Amino acid sequence: MTATNDTRESEPELGAAGSQLSTAPKEEITLPSLGPLGWARWFWRQLTSMRVALILLFLLSLGAVPGSLIPQTSINPVKVDEFKEQHDILGPVYDKLGMFHVYSSVWFSAIYLLLFISLIGCIIPRTWQFVGQLRGRPPGAPRRLTRLPAYATWRTTAEPEQVLEAARRTLKKRRFRTHVVGSSVASEKGYLREAGNLVFHIALIVMLVAFAVGQLWKSEGGKLVTEGDGFSNSLTQFDDFKSGSFFDTDDLAPFGFQLDKFVATYERGGPQNGTPRVFRADVTYFNGADGKEHKTSIKVNEPLDIGGDRVYLLSHGYAPEVTVKDGTGKVVYEGAVPFLPQDQKNFTSSGVVKVPGAKTKDGKKNQLGFQGFFVPTFGGKGSGSMFSVFPALDNPRLTLTAYHGDLGVDSGLPQNVYQLETKNLKQYKKDGRAVAQMMSPGQTMKLPNGDGSIRFDGVKQWASFTISHQPGNGLALGGAVAALLGLAGSLFIQRRRVWVRAEKGPDGVTVVEVAGLGRSESPKLPEELADIAYALQPEAPQASEPASEEPEESAPQDSAPDAEDSAEPSDSAGNADPSEGARA
After folding, report:
1. Do 479 and 206 contact (CB within 8 A), yes or no?
2. CA-to-CA separations, 56 to 105, 216, 218, in angstroms, rounded
3. For residues 276 and 265, is the Cβ–Cβ distance under 8 A?
């Protein structure tokens, strides 16, 4: 016997080898097959559950994190290229995972659509259930009101009918839905709690729809404008432009503006030396083809709303004004050239001047190019360096290096207007040294061989703007406000039921019972019940208690509680089940 027990105990450890030592029958459990329709129902129930909706909402929030931390192609493709160059390993991995276009990636769209379907599947049945509750009536009073968490009772000389009518009026004044069931008044209040839940879920759908509308019908473009120049809202006017899949460029609103003046002042001295104090673009704008012109100012946090779009002020810089003459003495270029800041604090900037229409003194074609650096406040005197020590125009300097040859503008290939392609250019040299000169406003640099000159005339400022069209912003704001209101209603509104029963006692005096039940425990329910009982006192005044009599013989007490506990509900309306009254 001992050997047999040891053998059986070793079977789980020996696996298949141990099972051959026993002749005990194996128990097999076979689960019923759900089938395709059963699996579809199971998947739908899981998808529309609150647990899965919360998980999807968390995943959506988590998925938006890389969209904020990793450069996005739709926002700044230049930074995306720089990230790929700096990260040889992470770059290709991120590219395959769609990290450079998170919001349009397959995995983010899948989470988005599943959350959308989950919310709709959750809202529809709850809406029908809520409509049914609104059309129904509060259930009748349970048989034993003393079991409810809030309870009060007293005796009164008033008739039961009079008490019930007074209770119905009192409860209606407190915005309870009431109706009489037998010898009691059933009432209910707080339906806005469930309405708040529905509003919250619907608001989430509205916000998801707003997000989709904003991504599919949006448009956004950038434009750098120099003082005195303007912008018209057409596709050819943008320096860069991107839009959603469903946006039509023919829908661009007809408006425009001109940059009259850019105003920037800075803190002078102290620990915040150089900090901007005023950062403003004064513009003249029009809305519509024949719209009147209006003057306004655009600030960093105060965009211009026009034509359903918003014009944001992003940054500013300096544009040196130059005049270029070729070898024949003809002015071949005259105007302001925007230079891009390399130092965002003190605005040490770089830029190029391209002059494709120049000629030599013999009349031959001679394209000119100038690579330059500009500083608004020169601080490198005696050091041989070109740098700025303050962002304002206190002591401007322009340094240019001259080239000639083929600029490549006739090749048909796109070029960066802020970079000079020197592959097919030759640098001017004099006595074996490169021709370069630092100039103050009014000074001129002459080119060797009589090929012309360039004069530094002055400085203008430029400002860069973003023109954004986001059709879903208003819808998203409305959804966010509705979500907050719905959430507040579902948290702070308590759904509760109150019953008032009035019946004749054995001595002919009316016994009044008032009880309440809330969906969730709240300390305010007993207070509200006390207020209702107090309001009934004028029409159901408390009667004196009957004189107590000594019993001749003590009756057994063991059977009374059992008899009461086994009592069945007696309301004629069929709603007397205590569990029915507890559903709030």
Report:
1. yes
2. 16, 22, 25
3. yes
- HSE-CB at 40 with a 13 A cutoff on CA atoms is 3
Cα separation of 375 and 386, whole Å?
7
Containing 196, the helix (H) or strand (E) segment is helix 192-216
Tokens of 394: 């206190």
* Residues 6+ away with beta carbon under 8 Å from 580: 139, 140, 142
Tens of pLDDT, residues 85-123: 888 888 899 999 999 988 888 899 899 889 889 888 888
pLDDT value at residue 282: 97
- Tokens coding 512: 């009044």
List, for residues 279-328, the tens digit of each pLDDT value. Answer: 999 999 999 878 899 999 999 889 999 988 999 999 999 999 999 999 99
Give the number of other Cβ atoms within 10 Å of residue 477's Cβ: 12
Q: Residue 364 and residue 362: Cα distance in Å, rounded? A: 6
Specify the 3-state DSSP secondary structure of 391. coil
Nearest CA to 493 among 469, 524, 514, 516? 524
Q: pLDDT tens for residues 70-89?
A: 988 877 777 888 888 888 88
Tokens 């009431």 label which residue?
178
Its sign, for the CA torsion 76, 77, 78, 79, is positive
- Rounded Cα–Cα distance for residues 463 and 318 (Å): 9
- The CA distance from 31 to 388, in Å, is 80
In whole angstroms, give the CA distance from residue 234 to residue 253.
Answer: 8
Beta carbons of 103 and 242 less than 8 angstroms apart: no
Express each pLDDT in 401-434 by its tens digit. Answer: 999 998 888 776 777 788 888 888 999 998 888 8
Q: Contact at 8 Å (CB) between 417 and 351?
A: no
Q: Look up residue 534 and give its amino acid.
A: Y
Q: Is residue 539 packed enough to be buried (19+ CB in 10 Å), middle (13-18) or exposed (0-12)?
A: middle
What span, in angstroms and rounded, lies between the C-alpha atoms of 332 and 326? Answer: 7
For β-strands 340-341 and 184-189, DSSP reports them as unpaired
Q: If DSSP codes are grouped into helix, strand and coil, which group holds residue 431? A: coil
Nearest C-alpha neighbor of 515 from the set 260, 167, 147: 147
**Which residues on adjacent β-strands are paired with residue 464?**
224, 315
Instruction: Give the angle 554-556-558 at the CA atoms, nearest 5°.
Output: 145
Q: Give the pair of three-digit tokens for residue 27.
A: 């128990």
